[in-house]
Specification:
Belongs to the cytochrome P450 family. It is a single chain. The chain has about 500 residues and is α+β, with helices and mostly antiparallel strands. The protein has a single domain, classed as Cytochrome P450 (Cytochrome p450), CATH 1.10.630. About 55% of the residues lie in helices and about 10% in strands. The protein is built from 19 helices and 13 strands. Strand 1 and strand 2 form a beta hairpin. The longest helix has about 40 residues. It is globular and about 65 Å long. The termini are far apart. The N terminus is likely disordered.
């Protein structure tokens, strides 16, 4: 009996030691976290910092972006500083040009941003600076700028519209009490198109009757949890959770493993059939790069950038369009002039002739940009054109959402939706990208801009021509979730009626 007890006691000792060590380590890390946070506790007691900490701005403003807009409009320079965030925020076009072009090398994305998305995007183009960025930028510019890749993208968009989007809208059109979440539909549509464009496969997420694939679910979770890192009070919180592999960081790790494992599987299958005859991004990069992990990082970066931005832009467009039937009417009249009224899809050449549609799309993104703000980090002390001093290490943010609402930038009617402001003699006329940095500007200007616009205009034209789409609750203001892109809280429920011609 004693011998059995002795053996049991001896076998128990390593387990107890391990448990004690694990508890001690966890407690020590947790205590260190609390101590560090106490050191980082913001002591600034200015009005802006107090309001930010207490969220006392929320009863008056629907969104944090609206409060920032209010502060920036009040500022003589259209620039403010949030001390508790060590963040300088600007809506001044001269400052934006300084950050994105003139002093580009002094304002990289920086390590803090790279750390947030690093596990998901790795060394992909949207998460790196320096030589790695320059290499990917040059390679991607050659691919994205080619006529063949644009034609390939256009064919995918047309196919998805004809095969999935229009049939879905027709199936719910006219049904009593039938409400469709337009934001969710556009998220699924844009995911299907960018996935086909990136991997050459159709995930069919727009087929609402089909179950969502493991890749799509994992990608959604990974995107959401990566974005939530940026909203954390301190990066130490998610970093400690990552080390301990607990909570949201544990879910994020599992989701990323699924995404990258399935991407690797697609690559291996592609090698078997050959890449020379394929047009998707994965095949194109596989023909020139030998590092599989690097290729996956690049393609996933394009997947992330191309999905939510297009869906967000289309959601904002149809929300504002439902409030301006006169603009909807003008789009239809232009469409009928340029193409046959009974034709559902325009050609590339016809799309280029639709200046009013282009103006309406740009105007909606002026007020509801897909990416409401973007941040860089200052490498060395600097002074902005408005004489704002920016110390080394400061996060600096330019704010397209606020810029679209600056009277100094757009005039006294800056809050009004007016596509005509983009037209001269009926011809679309763009403005400086530093006044309208919706697609970024300078060396990092969006490579997929033309393809994204092509997709958005194709969708808008096909739906506006065939359906009357009305927001179910037009009296409610848009409230946005904390996210890398502008995502409407609760979606955008709409009622759809097929037009009688």
């Amino acid at each position: 009996m004693e011998t059995g007890y002795s053996v049991f006691s001896q076998s128990l000792q390593p387990t107890c030691c391990f448990l004690f060590f694990s508890f001690t380590l966890s407690f020590t890390i947790f205590s260190l976290l609390l101590f560090t946070l106490s050191l980082l506790k913001p002591h600034c007691d200015c009005e802006i910092c107090r309001s930010y900490r207490s969220r006392s701005w929320s009863p008056e403003f629907d969104n944090l972006a609206d409060w920032y807009t209010h502060l920036l409009r009040k500022s003589p320079t259209n620039t403010i500083h949030i001390h508790v965030l060590n963040n300088t925020i600007t809506a001044n076009p001269e400052n934006v040009e300084h950050i994105l072009k003139t002093q580009f090398e002094n304002y990289p994305k920086g390590r803090p941003f790279s750390a947030i998305l690093g596990d998901l995007l790795g060394k992909g183009i949207f998460n790196v600076d320096g030589d790695s960025w320059k290499f990917q930028r040059k390679m991607a510019s050659l691919e994205m700028g080619s006529i063949s890749i644009r034609s390939y993208a256009f064919d995918i968009v047309r196919s998805e519209i004809q095969s999935n989007l229009i049939p879905l809208f027709s199936s719910v059109s006219g049904e009593k009490d039938s409400v469709l979440d337009l934001q969710q539909v556009f998220q699924r549509f844009s995911f299907d198109t960018i996935f086909r464009f990136s991997f050459g496969l159709d995930p069919n997420t727009l087929q609402l009757s089909l179950p969502i694939s493991d890749f799509v679910m994992a990608f959604d979770v990974a995107s959401k949890l990566s974005a939530e890192r940026a909203m954390s009070v301190s990066p130490l919180i998610w970093k400690v959770k990552k080390v301990l592999n607990i909570g949201s960081e544990k879910k994020l790790k599992k989701s990323i493993e699924v995404v990258k494992s399935l991407a690797q599987e697609v690559m291996e299958n592609r090698r078997k059939i050959g890449v020379s005859t394929q047009n998707d991004l994965l095949s194109r990069f596989m023909s020139s790069i030998n590092d599989d992990a690097y290729i996956i990082d690049i393609v996933i970066s394009f997947l992330l950038a191309g999905r939510d931005t297009v869906a967000s832009a289309l959601t904002g467009f149809f929300w504002v369009l439902s409030q301006h039937p006169e603009v909807e009417k003008s789009i239809r009249e232009e469409s009928d002039r340029v193409m046959c009224p009974t034709k559902e899809l325009a050609s590339l050449e016809q799309m280029r002739e639709m200046h009013y549609l282009q103006a309406a799309m740009y105007e909606s993104m002026r007020l509801y940009p897909p990416v409401q703000f973007d941040s860089k980090f200052c490498q060395e002390d600097d002074i902005l054109p408005d004489y704002t001093f920016v110390p080394k290490g400061t996060r600096i943010t330019y704010h397209p959402y606020a810029m679209g609402r600056m009277e100094r930038v757009w005039g006294p009617d800056c809050f009004d939706f007016k596509p005509e402001r983009w037209l001269q003699g009926g011809v679309f006329c763009p403005v400086s990208p530093f006044k309208y940095p919706v697609f970024q500007a300078g060396p990092r200007v969006c490579l997929g801009k033309e393809i994204a616009l092509l997709e958005m205009k194709s969708v808008a034209l096909s739906l506006v021509g065939r359906f009357d789409i009305r927001v179910a609750t037009p009296e409610k203001a848009l409230r946005f979730m904390p996210s890398l892109t502008a995502t409407v809280r609760g979606g955008l429920p709409v009622i759809i009626q097929e037009r009688k011609r």
